[in-house]
Amino acid sequence: MIATIDQDTTQSMKAGLEALRRDYKTLRTGKVNPAVLDNITIDYYGTETQLSKVATVLTPDATTITISPWEKNLLKDIEQAISGANIGVSPNNNGETITLFFPPMTVEQRHESAKSAKAMTDHAKVSIRNARKHANDIIKKAHKEKAITEDESKQRQDEIQKMTDKFNTKADEIFKAKESEILKV
Question: How many CB atoms lie within 10 A of CB 132?
Answer without folding.
Answer: 20
